[in-house]
Amino acid sequence: MASVPSLASAVEQRVSAALSSALPEAGAADPLLRRSDRADFQANGILALAKKAKANPRELAGTVVDALDKGGVIADVEVSGPGFLNITVSDRAIVETLAARAGDDRLGVPVNEHAGTTVIDYAQPNVAKEMHVGHLRSAVIGAAMVEMLEFTGETVVRRHHIGDWGTQFGMLIQYLLEHPHELDHKAAGESSEQSGEEAMSNLNRLYKASRALFDADEEFKTRARARVVDLQAGDEQTLALWQRFVDESKIYFYSVFDKLDMDIQDPDIVGESGYNDMLVETCRLLEESGVAVRSNGALCVFFDEYKGPDGQPTPLIVQKSDGGFGYAATDLSAIRDRVGNLKASSLVYVVDARQSLHFKMVFETARRAGWLNEDVHAHQLAFGTVLGADGKPFKTREGETVRLVDLLDEAVDRATAVVREKAEKVGLSEQEIVENGRFVGIGAVKYADLSTSAARDYKFDLDQMVSLNGDTSVYLQYAYARTQSILRKAEGRSPVAHPELELAAAERTLGLHLDGFGALVSEAAAEYAPHKLAAYLYQLASLFTSFYEHCPVIKPEPELAVGENRLFLTDLTGRTLAKGMSLLGIRTPERL
Ligand code: ARG
Question: Least enclosed by CB within 10 Å: which of 74, 170, 569, 573?
Answer without folding.
Answer: 74
